[in-house]
Amino acid sequence: MKKELAKIADVLLEAGAMLMESGANTGRIRVTVNRIVHSLGYQVELLITHRALMVSVIDDKGKFYSSKLKRTQPHGVNFKVLSGISRMSWRVQDEDWDLDQIKQELARLKSLPHYPRWQVLLLVSLSGAAFCRLFGGGWVEMLVAFIATFAGLFVRQEAIKKNFNSYISVFLASTVASLFSGLAVKLGIGAHPELAFATSVLFLVPGVPLINSFTDLIDGNISIGIVRGTNGLLVAFSIALGLLAAMVVFKI
Amino acid sequence: MEIFDLLEKGLWAGFAALGFAILFNVPPRTLFAIWYLGALGGIAKFLMLDLNLNIILSSLIGASVIGVLSVPLAHKIHSPPLIFSIPAVIPMVPGVLAYRMMLGLMKISTHAGDAGMDGVLVDTIQNGMKTIFILLSLAVGVAVPMLVTRKESAKRIRLML
Hints:
A: mainly alpha; 2 domains; B: 161 residues
């Protein structure tokens, strides 16, 4: 019995950690893990923090329990995994999956590919140009924002590949992007080059941490909401520091 | 002509949302819905701005349109609502205001005693406050519909009545 519970705890921690790492808010992790464990016929207690998860799985008579702790990896947003696990939890409930099926599905979700790198680069750069347009830039500024975003995102991907500290990779990406768009400001390319300068770093905005922070705060998970908010602010600060570096270089 | 301008802004808001969707690695089946939602939210926001509503309320309305529509979309396409709503609200992030606030802060910290700094101070505070309140209203617009319609909380509401 005890062994069975320990196995379930392992699978739950795996699912919970994957959700946390891919950008789920605390309420969603709790709901999803509960849904899985209830359809397996057990009870669960969860402790969710930013970098570690703890579960206690309890059998339905409350006689045996198994507790485990797992450290979660640094976060990188991955909505494919988030959506996959959420979908899986419904199928566990509706189709009476057993533990092995859940394990297989988690392994499959882990191995799902990301979008190809050139596609990410092109579309994110296009969104940089779109930002510039939304703030009132013309075609020339949009082109500048496109090129700057492309360069910045490229640097960020390389920095992540080399396992740099996440704030330092944001800083490097922001610096490179604003060096490109700052050059346009220095040379006076376009009517409002400062629009391209301000929008070329927007691909770095910490949207997921900030929105999750707010969701967690008003959902009653105050401590983790504060942690997420601090993380978002640090990212925003790194972006500003990168802009500052380019401004010092070009004396804008 | 106005309508054309509005639609064009919506188009670009959709593309900005799409870029973030790809960056966040969303499932391919949700891509079109995210583009559409981003465009719709952008149109709602710029329409409100056209009607002389202030930028904070306009952003709140735009984000609420996205937040409310993300819930039925989530049921239809079988993905959690935040997968649609987070990429779709990001085009409303007040990037230029935040940038201006940053410029102002730098000026204040380096040229504190100079003439004309009062104006800079007021502008900086205004830009900073606008940035913060717009970000808050984006979070409210996205998070509240998601929390209200969650199954557990809906059940609780019924018990209370």
